[in-house]
Amino acid sequence: MIEADGLSKRFGSLRALDKVSFEVKQGEVVGFLGPNGAGKSTAMRILTCFISASGGTAKVHGYDVFDDPLEVRRKIGYLPQRAPLYGEMSVWEYLSFVADMRGLDKSTFKKRMRGIVEVCGLAQVLGKDIRNLSHGYRQRVGLGQALVHDPPILILDEPTSDLDPNEKAEVIRYIKEIGKERTILLSTHNLNEVEAACARAIIVSKGRVVADGPLDDIRARSGKVRYVVTVHEKRVLDGSSKKPPTAQEVQEALLKLPGVTHVSELPTDDRAHSFQLMGALGGDVRPELFALIVQKGWLLLEMRRESQTLEDVFKVLTKGDERKDRGRRHVEDEHEHEEEDAAAGAEDEADDEGDDEPDDGGEDDGAEDEGAEGEGAEGDDEPGDKEEKAPAAGKAKKG
Ligand SMILES: Nc1ncnc2c1ncn2[C@@H]1O[C@H](COP(=O)(O)OP(=O)(O)OP(=O)(O)O)[C@@H](O)[C@H]1O
Ligand SMILES: [Mg+2]
């Protein structure tokens, strides 16, 4: 239903997309993930015919986005990251206007609206002018707009970023439900949502696809499991004559355990020392951990073993991206950073047809919801996770 083949997009010297290829089959709900600036919205805007690619091809529902943009648009519902809405229209007027443009007759529109009002939680604002709506409600209207013609394919760019937790859950539940019959490409920074709604994910970083597959496969890519161990800071096992351990003692002992590759301290209250350990996916160090703790006389408060989460793998796969874009260095040494960027641009050199960015369709009334980037790539690197410092995937350098 969606096929991207070698899609590239340049904005001046910036390579926002670099030969991105993926497919989304009928009935799939696919999470489209990546750090800020990775190229998700750019890819979505190409797929929805809002901007043209600098290279490569894309088809939606069998239609080429360059040759048959009207057919493509008929087949898709698109929620842009910053949904352009007409502030002077009421919600009902706006959705009715969109339905008109989509060629829906009045009775079909009314029928569709029943479902949309419920799903998007719009009942209380139907008569309100859009300009007076909060961000979250504007986003709901944007979502309604994407659904009004009941399209077989939905391309949703961060549909839940401004919604309150209840509404997020409701929208995700709905996406999951309609995803049974439709094809959905969904970008979000909330990995829990991906876990809840998608069987598959595509992760992009710096304009390239760094992972594409079922969530289980992506999670398994790290090849590691994590253990969390917490021992009491002030007490020891009943009957033990030993002193309560310091954090350093615990850390050193844990590091010596065979099969443990990394140890890093986790934040806790002042009652406990808590550590995260990494080990190989196939192994299990819990018996040795238990024996160590008994031998030391420590009072165990918690021990658990868990597979790497999607978030862990996401961090590893996109780490190169994060490091470049975090902005810490930018604050520390603005000039150095600028020079580096200029050098990166120069590296890209080559012919560049400049940027032909028609920008969100032009009809934006100023629904300037910038900064909705919610719970994004916020996570800080786990301390001590040294092995993961040089992710092969996101760093591929190629001309
Ligand atoms: N019209 C434009 N002109 C110049 N650069 C652009 C334009 N649109 C996007 N970019 C750049 O392209 C890169 C990819 O941007 P894009 O919006 O696709 O990222 P994203 O993955 O959607 O990020 P986010 O999670 O923050 O929404 C960024 O570096 C961005 O600054
Ligand atoms: Mg985006």
Question: Could you please describe the fold and organization of this structure?
Answer:
This protein has 399 residues and is an alpha/beta fold. The protein folds into 2 domains: 219 residues, 3-Layer(aba) Sandwich (Rossmann fold), CATH 3.40.50; 84 residues, Alpha-Beta Plaits. Helices cover 34% and strands 25% of the residues. The protein contains 14 helices and 14 strands. The protein has a 6-stranded mixed sheet, with helices on both faces. Strands 2-1-4-5 form a 4-stranded antiparallel sheet, with helices on one face. A 4-stranded antiparallel sheet has the order 12-13-11-14, covered by helices on one side. The protein is elongated. The chain starts with a strand and ends in a 51-residue tail after the last helix.
Task: Write the H/E string, N to C.
Answer: EEEHEEHEHHHEHEHEEHEHEEHEHHHH
* Largest sheet descriptor: 6 strands, mixed
Low-confidence blocks of residues: 343-399
Q: Strands of the largest sheet, in order across it?
A: 6-7-8-3-9-10
